[in-house]
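dude i think i finally got it to work??
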Amino acid sequence: MQKEKIALIALVIIVIGALSVFVTAVNTDIFENLFKEKLTIAEGDCADVNYIGRYASNNSVFDSSYNDTTNKTGATPLKIFVSFNASATSPKSGYTAGMIKGFMNGIIGMKEGQTKTIGPIPPEDAYGAKKFGEGAIFTSQYLAFGMNQTVEVINYTTENLTVKWIQMENLGIFTMPQLVINNLQSTNESEMVIYPPPYYIWENATSIINITDTEVTVKTTPTKSTNLTTIVKDVRYGEKQMLIFPNATTATWNNDTITVVCSPIVGKNYTFQTPGYSGMVNITIHVNSIIGDQINVTITNDQSPEPSYMDVYKELTFNRTYILPRIYKDIPGMYISYFYGEDIQKAGYSLEPLAGETLLFEVTVEKVYKTAQETS
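look at this
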């Protein structure tokens, strides 16, 4: 009996030994993975993670890296650079920052292979506490360009935005804008914006004289009649274009109208500088002739060898009063973020659809890449 026990023990040892050799030969990683320390995510690392995002209010899924969230199959892991700076460059190609603060805080300290639920994440650590929509109030200079206007959102969808100018009583004396948006749905530039009379020649010379529910009437009183500019300036009024010249432009006015007259010297070069893509650009305007109400000029600059030729008006007469719109309708979605995104954000609102929501994330860390030392 004793001999049989010894033989059985020897057989078990032989089998275990053979199995160990076989497993090791097939996949040495099995034993390495059993005993090696799991990598832990730190700020500055990169990681592959799978996730299921849910609304904390009802636990319904709003996003996931799995094709099948029930069975957690068909995963396309998110490649995250763990940084709270959304614009930071990852040390590992294909990995990006920009996840919400609550998510980033939650994955820091997780180990490779670990699964946990992050949250509830409050809106201020997710996509913003205040969701942009009807009733939101913000200030922008990109409705009447160059003039700060406080507006209230009347209607908002991802396709269109309509706002109404409010608090205009606080403006006092102001500088009139050079252009006002009209129909940004149009592909015709002349319909997209309108050019009011060039009251902006005189800074802080315009005031509001009447307000209705849809319109604001303004009136301008010029502050000087000569020396209207120190450099050549482009002036537009509707379809008419004028260049006002230093020491060669005068203005007269009565109770109803303003008249601006330009009298540049024929044959003279007027030079000035303007910002360009690669620094300041030197512009030269040569006055070729003045015939009737038209001034013909040649325009050159030091960054382009090709001159351009232009006929501009010598004289413009326009009313002292003008009606500005209070309501800006149907601004296309493609312009909302581009023109107004920063202003909306400054007012404390978020354009994100998930703004105002408390969120949960079930996260599994698939792989950790220790790149923190590369970014330190």
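Residues 2-26 form the longest helix (25 residues).
im so relieved honestly
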